[in-house]
Amino acid sequence: MQVPLQITFEGIGHSDAIEARIKEETEKLGQFHSRITSARVVVARPQHRHNKGDIYHVRIQLAVPGSADVVVSREPGANGAHEDVYVTIRDAFKTARRLLQEGVEKRGGSV
To answer: CA–CA separation, 34 vs 48, rounded Å?
Structure first.
């Protein structure tokens, strides 16, 4: 990556463990698609619930030369899976990987 990874926390305090997981997932993306020039990840907890677990949102923006930015916004699902920030991060990066793969296939003409 040409630009260092940017990680922002909204409505949640900074967490070294969450940051480490995001860096790990971003490195995996970099191995999968070597042309990523920048990545920005926002981890948000928009509301604080008292009776149930908090819901997390993760937004990822990846810049890849020669194509539109890959933008993933992982919103909470109805099943409550996104009450765990690590599950939300995993799902968001899985979607980013799929979108990068689709972009590679479209540019390669295999779609």
So the answer is: 38
